[in-house]
Backbone:
């Protein structure tokens, strides 16, 4: 009886062992499947640089961790910035995505710090050599891989320069292969890092990955001063932060009137001289008030009628015109007694009037004939032409047009006596000859001069 319970316990223990042996392979398969599953993560080599994607084991990499990745310049230390959600559905990894080398440890981070110090030393030597040899370039930054045998050097130059002597000197002294790359002003500010006029760290070095297009129009839409010192950054270009709120300014500016436009307000008519976009207020110069007032944008257009509140500028202009008319009437009344007594009157104030010039055109047919007759009588009155009866010479106000006498088919008396009468041409031939004579520029049939023999 004592063996029965022992046999039962043995059987139960054997069954538990077999069950454990069956469960072990299943657990190992799950761990292997979870370790083999890959996800796409995003890493950055430098802060605020471009994000590169690599493949890493699922559940082993988290944001903020450091990993070692293989790039064109060798192994480099990178920081993880994006990781897919663990609860989300895993997406297949493309074959173009390369896997990470390994998770970075303390030794990798120490090597990265040593190579950063070595890169700073190389940068200082390159700047000294560039000034000494007068190469016309300025080295900006140097970056090395974890092994320290390859790296990238950025430089700034206004034009194309020959940097091969500098590159050969650095490679021979430090035994490193550098790739020279030219940088513009904005890229230089990103690599060097620093603080701007706002007192904060540069946006391009801290978080901004792309350089936006910034124009002068952006500053004008925000009513900023166009002084280059106030709207330019440390790089010498327009501030990138001007584009952050540009769309908001454009939307808020759309409901406000333009500067220089005349608007109506409860205080009266006036002209817009300034806009306050953030407070939605308009500074207006009123017509009937010397000071400027700030009117909310909601009250623009809420003015009383013109009959109730007329324009003060128009009223003043009308009053000034009436005063001028009254002053002119008083001067005319004062000059009237002096003219009646035969004394010269005082000259009226104001500009002199221009005398109208008489027209030389004919007024009517009868008047023209009368003037023609008077001229004819005056020409016959005196011994000279144009002399009147009282001895005063008069000239015609109108110039007569002198026409040259037409000389056609005239011959001298001597030529007519010697020549024989010729037959007259027909009508057709006479018309043709006249046409030809009109077209010709030379004189035709002029009277011949009498020769000495004819005399």
Residues:
């Amino acid at each position: 009886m004592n063996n029965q319970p022992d046999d039962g316990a043995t059987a139960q223990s054997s069954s538990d062992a077999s069950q454990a042996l069956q469960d072990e392979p299943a657990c190992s398969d799950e761990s292997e499947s979870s370790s083999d599953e890959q996800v796409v993560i995003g890493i950055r080599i430098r802060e605020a640089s471009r994000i590169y994607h690599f493949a890493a084991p699922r559940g082993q990499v988290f944001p903020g961790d450091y990993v070692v990745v293989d790039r064109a310049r060798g192994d480099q230390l990178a920081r993880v910035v994006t990781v897919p959600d663990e609860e989300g559905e895993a997406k297949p990894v493309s074959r173009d995505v390369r896997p990470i080398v390994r998770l970075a440890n303390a030794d990798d981070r120490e090597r990265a710090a040593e190579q950063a110090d070595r890169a700073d030393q190389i940068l200082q030597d390159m700047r000294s050599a560039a000034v000494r040899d007068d190469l016309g370039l300025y080295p900006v930054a140097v970056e090395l891989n974890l092994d320290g045998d390859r790296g990238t050097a950025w430089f700034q130059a206004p034009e194309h320069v020959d940097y091969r002597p500098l590159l050969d000197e650095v490679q021979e002294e430090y035994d490193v292969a550098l790739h020279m790359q030219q940088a513009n002003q904005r890229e230089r500010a990103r690599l060097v890092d620093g603080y701007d006029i706002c007192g904060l760290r540069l946006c391009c070095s801290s978080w901004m990955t792309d350089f936006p297009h910034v124009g002068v129009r952006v500053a004008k839409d925000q009513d900023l001063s166009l002084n280059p010192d106030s709207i330019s950054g440390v790089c010498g270009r327009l501030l990138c932060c001007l584009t952050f709120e540009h769309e908001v300014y454009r939307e808020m500016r759309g409901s406000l009137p333009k500067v220089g436009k005349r608007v109506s307000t409860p205080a009266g008519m006036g002209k817009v001289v300034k806009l306050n976009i953030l407070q939605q207020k308009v500074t207006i110069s009123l017509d009937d008030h010397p000071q400027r007032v700030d009117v909310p944008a909601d009250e623009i257009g809420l003015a009383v009628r013109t009959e109730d509140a007329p324009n003060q500028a128009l009223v003043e202009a009308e009053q000034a015109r009436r005063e001028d008319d009254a002053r002119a009437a008083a001067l005319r009344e004062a000059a009237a007694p002096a003219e009646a007594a035969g004394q010269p009157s005082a000259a009226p104030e104001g500009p002199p009037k221009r005398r109208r010039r008489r027209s030389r055109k004919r007024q009517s047919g009868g008047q023209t004939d009368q003037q023609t007759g008077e001229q004819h009588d005056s020409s016959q009155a005196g011994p000279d032409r144009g002399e009147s009866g009282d001895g005063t010479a008069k000239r015609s106000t109108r110039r007569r047009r002198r026409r040259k006498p037409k000389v056609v088919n005239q011959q001298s008396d001597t030529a007519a006596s010697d020549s024989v009468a010729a037959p007259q041409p027909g009508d057709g031939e006479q018309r043709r000859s006249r046409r030809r004579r009109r077209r010709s520029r030379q004189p035709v049939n002029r009277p011949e001069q009498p020769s000495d023999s004819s005399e």
Remarks:
- Residues 192-253 form one domain.
- Confidence is low (pLDDT under 50) at residues 1-35, 304-309, 368-393, 410-422.
- Residues 3-36 form the longest helix (34 residues).
- The chain has twelve helices and twelve strands.
